[in-house]
Amino acid sequence: MNRISWLAVPDEHSAHEGVQKLWAKAEANLGFVPNVFRAQALNGEQFLTWWNAFNTLVNRDGHLSPLERELLAVVVSSVNRCVYCAVSHGAALREYSGNPAWADTVAVNWRHATLTGRQAALCAFAEKLTRTPADMTERDLTPLREAGLGDPELLEAAQVIGMFNMTNRVSSALGFTPNAEYHQHARQPTPLTAD
Question: Start and end of every Carboxymuconolactone decarboxylase-like domain (predicted)?
C-alpha cells in the first residue's frame, strides 16, 4: 500500500471503534475509504469531531447548494495548493456540475470558467478570505448580497470556506495523498488524437 500520510496510520484493528464504523460506511457507499479518513484516524475522537462538523457543513442540506459548497471547496483548495482537497473535491465538483472541463477550469483558475454572477461572487469571497483574512471588511459582502445571497447563505459560505482552510492546512502539513479513485471520478474518457 502506498504511503498516504507522513504520520502513522492505524489499521482496521487499531482504529477507534467509531472510526471503524465510519470506514465501513464509506466503503459501502463509495466503494473505498477516503485516505483523509484513514490519515486522521490516529486521533480517533478528534477525527470524529472534525468529521461531524465537516459532514454538517458540506454534505447535509443547508442554505447553499451542494455544487456551491464544492465550488467553494475547490477554490479554497486551489488557492492553498492542497493536493488532497483539490483532487477529492474536484471530483465532487465534476459530479455535481456534470461538466468535467468546467470543474477542471475552476480548479486551475476560477476566473477562466464560465460562472453565474452568484458563483463568481462566491469564488471571489472564498479567494479573498483564504488569501487575506485580515483584510476582510463588510464591503466584501456587497457583491454576494447583490448576487442574491442572504445572511444564512453568507454565514454558511464563511463557515464552509473556514472549514476548508482548516482541512487544507491539516492535509498539507501531514502530506495526505488523495485516493486514486478521485482522479477518474465523473470523467468521460475520450481518446486523444493528433491532427
Answer: 46-126
